[in-house]
Design goal:
Blueprint lengths: L1 H27 L3 H22 L19 H23 L20
Amino acid sequence: MILIIGFLFLAAALLGIAAFHISAWCLNSRLNILVYFVLAVLGAGTVYGLLRLNGVIVFPGGHTWSVDFFDASWRDDGVRFLVLFGGTFSGTAAALFPRRNMDGGSSGAQIKEKT
């Protein structure tokens, strides 16, 4: 069970990394509105996945009673949506944060030596 959950986190992380780089490229290309639209759609999918995983949204034809955690259809759908949309949502949201200067200094200013 722990191994399956680890693989699910790995899949979500890989999707997040890919979404981060794609979103950063879109933000550098001045396609901000596209990133915000995609973020809204991914947020809605993440909320749906969470609601489905917790059993708030259960369809009449779904298999609901099971001893195995991943055997109920609403849990399966919730996990699928959460991995796909949640990982991508986190990578896209992370790209919106401003990047820091990686020059080693806290202020970003270069110190000139006196000669």
